[in-house]
Write a structure and sequence with these properties.
about 50% helix, globular, 11 helices, about 220 residues
């Protein structure tokens, strides 16, 4: 199991790394747009800000001139070939670029993997992961409501299922129970995982008991 931060914020990245249980960061063009006008430079800033082993980057030029996404992906990968995982949409154009990149040795994830067929394609080209949108799948009548379970059930190799579009801690549990290998979530949701009142009360009680014993 793995937990990731779904954010492009530098402050969020530092805070998530400090939690101790976050494995990496996932970003996308919308998250990048909130933070910067220079996503490639911001990627390098994220890599410098934290020592997390994985940072997922999706080219923001996917809908620009022909070749823009490929050039951006190459530059992003070159920022740190050990830590950067490239995200490409689970579409014909995205898969074509993903195939080229995987053949060159890049780690690639197919994102917006909203159909079980995405696992077949991802495994055929050796992708590191598929990234389905959990909350969106639940709300979209065109999508299998048990999408994560379907993706995990079709897997025969090492392609991981990383659930995104997670809005609360309950959805985190649902994703893992359905077979996800990892979940990426906003900082607030990650903090929510260990914020149960009973756990906090127990921590405070132990501290108070120790303090009173020390005084005695």
């Amino acid at each position: 199991m793995g937990l990731y931060l779904d954010s492009a914020g530098l402050d969020d990245a530092v805070a998530a790394a400090a939690l101790g249980f976050v494995r990496g960061i996932t970003t996308n063009p919308a998250l990048m747009r909130k933070e910067t006008a220079d996503p490639l430079r911001h990627l390098r800033d994220l890599l410098a800000a934290v020592e997390l082993p994985e940072v997922y980057y999706q080219p923001t030029g996917a809908y620009g001139p022909p070749g823009a996404a490929a050039e951006e992906a190459e530059e992003a990968w070159s920022a740190d070939k050990d830590r950067v995982v490239l995200k490409l949409p689970a579409t014909p154009d995205g898969a074509a670029l993903a195939g080229t990149l995987t053949r060159r040795g890049a780690r690639v994830a197919l994102t917006a993997a909203q159909t079980p067929h995405a696992m077949l394609v991802a495994e055929s080209m050796g992708c590191a992961a598929v990234i389905p949108y959990l909350d969106r799948a639940v709300r979209d009548l065109r999508t299998d409501s048990e999408l994560i379970r379907s993706l995990a059930g079709l897997r025969r190799g090492s392609t991981r299922v990383i659930a995104a579009s997670v809005k609360n801690s309950g959805q985190v549990l649902h994703a893992f129970a359905s077979g996800a290998d990892a979940v990426t979530a906003p900082l607030a949701v990650l903090r929510e995982l260990l914020s149960h009142p009973a756990s906090i009360e127990a921590e405070q009680a132990f501290a108070q008991e120790y303090a009173s014993t020390a005084k005695g």
